[in-house]
Amino acid sequence: MIRLVVWVFALVLASSLAHAAIVEHTFNVENISVQRLCRPQVITAVNGTLPGPTIQAREGDTVVVHVFNKSPYNLTIHWHGILQFLTPWSDGPEFVTQCPIHSGSSYTYKFNLTGQEGTLWWHAHSSFLRATVYGALIIRPRQGHSYPFHKVYKEIPILLGEWWNANVVEVEQNATESQAAPKDSDAYTINGLPSDLYNCSQDGTYQVKVKAGKTYMLRIINAALNAQHFFQVANHTLTVVAIDAAYTNHYKTNVLVLAPGQTVDVLLRTNQRVRSYYMAFTPYRSAPEIASNANMTRGLIVYQGAKSKKPVMPDLPAQTDTPTAHRFYTNITGLAGGPHWVPVPHHVDEHMFVTFGIGFTVCNNFSGGCTESTRPLSANMNNESFVLPRGKGVSMLEAFYRNNVSGVYTRDFPIRPPVEFDYTNPNISNAMPFAFQIAPKSTKVKTLMFNSTVQIVLQNTAILAVENHPIHIHGFNFHVLAQGFGNYNATRDEPKFNLRNPQIRNTISVPVGGWSVIRFQANNPGVWLVHCHLETHLPWGLAMAFEVENGPSPSFSVPPPPSDLPKC
């Protein structure tokens, strides 16, 4: 029997290798001048394009990307949603898995795509450079395999972005120095174009030309920095077939909502009258009392043979329509038994209850000075405000590999908040002792045994304001067991867990003033960042990290670092 199993495994492995390919790219990161909104603007981009190049690959392929940093900024590239199993040196978050690629230097990222299909993306993981350094990463089924739905006529990536009439690095620096919210972006874009809603942009609207009676797949990516968005195509029903590169049961809807970092694959049937239709993004503002960019953007779906009539505009939800957003986020279920489906592990080894939200920084530690009415903003998880270990000489992953973490990070991230209270009641939260409103700065991780199963309750707090937060976990996908509003209550909410076909994600949008329960298996050794994917919130400290111990053999351990790994 053992020989038979080994023989079958060898056949599968040989078949996999026979159908796998090496997909190789060169990324030249440099400053270019781009004309948008009536003016030229110098931006940092990859290979002179906005968005950057799309990586096209198949499940099982190996991706190799040579990054040459010709820009004036130190940076890294993160491959958002790629599991990086045993390739943690290629994950990308600066000072976590690597030091930045210095200006004038290079680094080669190499990773495998086994067990993943769908739409992911890549982006800079250094400061606000993500605003212009990003692109799609599309993983199709391997040769000889097909999608778990009917063949589509054409696939179209749709990337939502943000545009500033400013140097985005300076935008972040100004916000960091003042510890205030950054300047709002000046426009939202679709595939780099702002649309006819903005000045000097009548010819700057992204268009898709389609044929009637066909089925198209839209691969939609929210690459914006700080805003969730509703998305609609006028007069058309969309069928969701995947989220975050994980297949779903078909879900028909006329409106989507995506948080920054999330992706949604939908089928669009061109079954309407021959004319032009707008597809539009408008922000979902879960906390209307918090000032934010309320602009929208749109593109065109143009039927072949359409006359020059005024395009039809969708009837978009109100930007504060939380019920519509929550309905979309919670109605999707995973395609149990479909390609690459992972069943929910039932035994849980580690239980964590993680509160998160916005608070303040101690005025005495703020060089700009402040008063009681202008206290600088901060953010935290379980009352710990995360700080990247800059200036330590090594990344967190290097410290882990060398087994010398002293002075780089500590292993005492709390599994519960220090105080239990009525987390989402603003009256109670604002009456909390001021010391609890100011979280200490730290670089703490939670250590996990290899292959242990982890369940996390993510609980929003109202200490300053409740808000819908997208939480991204590097190195893992996770099952979303349940979501709700208010405070999580195990007695009431555990019976609601979907253990049969929950959605699988890498970025979860935790409901405004609410909670989400996620579960995953810690089968990927290394150091993995967990953070809010609103770009303002990581510098403020809304993050932590997992340190996953090595497995029982070198085959399940962090490999040696590559020879060209950047130095700090």
Provide structural commentary.
Keywords: Apoplast, Copper, Glycoprotein, Lignin degradation, Metal-binding, Oxidoreductase, Repeat, Secreted, Signal. It is an enzyme of class 1 (oxidoreductase). With 568 residues, this protein is mostly beta strands. It has helices spanning 2-19, 168-178, 322-331, 396-401, 426-430, 434-437, 490-493, 537-540, and strands spanning 22-36, 39-46, 55-58, 62-69, 77-80, 106-112, 118-124, 134-140, 154-163, 187-190, 207-210, 215-222, 228-233, 238-243, 246-253, 256-258, 263-269, 276-284, 297-303, 350-360, 377-381, 385-386, 441-442, 445-448, 452-460, 469-473, 478-485, 504-505, 507-510, 514-522, 526-532, 543-548. It has a six-stranded mixed β-sheet with strand order 10-9-12-17-14-15, with no helix packed on it. The longest helix is centred in the first third of the chain and has 18 residues, at 2-19. Residues 1-17 have low confidence and may be disordered.
Low-confidence stretches: 1-17
Distance between the termini: 51 Å
Percent in helix: 10-25%
In quaternary terms, these chains amount to: single chain
Biggest sheet descriptor: 6 strands, mixed
The computed structural class is mainly beta
Strand order in the sheet with the most strands: 10-9-12-17-14-15
Q: Report the portion of residues in β strands.
A: 35-45%
Outline, from the CA principal axes? globular
Give me the count of strands: 32
Instruction: Give the integer mean of the pLDDT values.
Output: 91
Tally of individual helices? 8
Rg over CA atoms, rounded to whole Å, is: 23 Å
InterPro entries: Cu-oxidase-like_N (IPR011707), Cu-oxidase_2nd (IPR001117), Cu-oxidase_C (IPR011706), Cu-oxidase_fam (IPR045087), Cu_oxidase_CS (IPR033138), Cu_oxidase_Cu_BS (IPR002355), Cupredoxin (IPR008972), CuRO_1_LCC (IPR034288)
Subcellular location: Secreted, Extracellular space, Apoplast
Catalytic activity: 4 hydroquinone + O2 = 4 benzosemiquinone + 2 H2O
Domain Plastocyanin-like: 29-143, 155-306, 412-550
